[in-house]
Amino acid sequence: MFHAVIMAGGTGTRFWPASRAARPKQLIRLSGERTLIQATVERLEGVVPRENIWIVTSRSHAAALSAQVPEVPAENVIIEPCGRNTAPCTALAALHIAWRDPAAEMICMPADHVVSDAQAWRDLLLAASALLKTPGRILVFGIPPTRPETGFGYVRFGPQIEECNGIPVHEVEGFTEKPELDRARALIEAGNCYWNSGLAAWSAETFLDAVRTHLPELSRGLEPVRPVIGTDSYDEVLTRVYPDLPSVSLDYGILEKVPSILGLPASMGWSDVGSWSALPEVLQAHEDSSVSLGDSLRQDSSGCVIYSPDHLVATVGVQDLIIVATDDAVLVCHKDRAQDVKKVVEELRRRGRTDLL
């Protein structure tokens, strides 16, 4: 049976002040009527049974996540004692899935991305499930790039080797971490490079084998956990060993080291919605090229991003601003500085303003 692992441990500092420590990005509504975690779970309907959906998160977010997606069984919400990056998070989920079903296949995904073409996404899931019937395979999904983006990693596809359900399957030739602009342009011009979507699929045991080979310290660190899953000792053992695990990403620790990986182009209206400036990718623009979520009144203004679910925001004679209004804070910055919103969070933390974090 196909399982889905939703990684929901991030805090989303680039979405302050809407995103806070107790209400991270995946718990807020950035497009449509659903929060990002609700939309992520909803997209799995018809392909992954609810009992096979897993969420990995922190203890501070677990209750809020369960309240938003009650269809995910409570026992499928895996709580990390602390954040250790995506490789340990995925390995812990794989241990749980293999304990329940040793032959299970699984796909890992972030909780806070947007996919506008749900049917294309489901077609990709079905293709992945079929491809994983061949033992030992590891799959990644590449987003056709629309611009030279320095904030994403890239995956380079080689020749097409087969086709599954109408979707071409390629060998993966390599990965590139977030490049400088000139390098990003060259990757786009090469024609065979895709944005790295953060999605990957394998059988649970194939992944755990890869961890043993390429991240032996992580594998050894989790050895005490596997035999106690489902027992009264689980929480105590996990709390004891997890903080000592290496903090390493899935890409760097596993995917960039595995010698043979398959890649699927994923044309599904994807956006990682990485900052406020990305909202135009997922919201319908007004005639003045602004986008808004909530009530806004714009006079002689254009190209703005406005988020104000509970208050009217009025603008006069401004362009290309991000304006975010919540009950206790207002953010105003230029769209070109959207990545620097995290610096506000860092400064608030330095000043001890925990009431705003």
Report the order of strands and helices: EHEHEHEEHEEEHEHHHHEEEEEEH
Residue share in β-strands:
25-35%
Average pLDDT taken over every residue: 94
CATH superfamily of the largest domain: Spore Coat Polysaccharide Biosynthesis Protein SpsA, Chain A
Measured distance between first and last alpha carbons: 40 Å
The CATH architecture of the largest domain can be named as Alpha-Beta Complex
Find the count of extended strands (DSSP E, 2+ residues).
Answer: 15
Q: Number of helical segments? A: 10
Sheet with most strands: 5 strands, mixed, barrel
Number of domain units: 2
The CATH topology of the largest domain is given as Spore Coat Polysaccharide Biosynthesis Protein SpsA, Chain A
Q: Assign a percent range to the helix content.
A: 25-40%
CATH class of the largest domain: Alpha Beta
Strand order of the largest sheet: 6-9-7-8-10
The low-confidence runs, each spanning 5 or more residues with pLDDT under 50, are none
- Morphology: globular
The computed structural class is: alpha/beta
Radius of gyration: 21 Å
